[in-house]
Amino acid sequence: MSRPKTIPDEALLDAALDIVHRSGPAALSFASVAERVSLASSTVVQRFGSKSELLRAALLHAWDRLDEATATVVAEASFDAAGVIELLAALSGEYEANDYADQLMVLREDLRDPVLRARGETWIATLAAAIEERLTDAPGGAKGLGELVVAQWQGTLILWGFTRPGPLPQLVRRSLEALLDRLIPAAVSSSEC
After folding, report:
1. Whole-angstrom distance, CA of residue 149 vs CA of residue 132
2. pLDDT bracket for residue 50 (50, 70, 90)
3. What domain range is 54 assigned to?
């Protein structure tokens, strides 16, 4: 009979994510997680087996959180161009510029690991579909616009990391308004943004 877990896996994964987000994936170790949650390193090893599996589990946990956040903002977004803008502005977060740069180290891990990359691909498809549901007034239809808008949004995040022309949500809104105004003339100005 196994002993009950005094600290749930979710708490360990939260601690691991905090380490990865603050100090990068290289800083993650069984010892660093164990120290954060006052647990023996050997217990963390028993649960996850290897550092790479711990990192993968932590990043899958992050994807679970992002999926939940995405579902929430998609459910709340209106079915128009303004809804697309609000949806993506809400998902942009409130980063400090250096914090955003640190997140790119985490993205590198997502791109390297096929399981994590597949989660990202699924998330992009889900987000693109939600965007297309809101852009049905586009000339020629909305098919393909979801990925285009996601790409514009992600590019805006990177540009903000370099230029930092103000708060990120404001830049995201301006960038998406400009794009959607060109794709669907008058859609943004006729919506309440």
Report:
1. 9
2. very high
3. 9-190
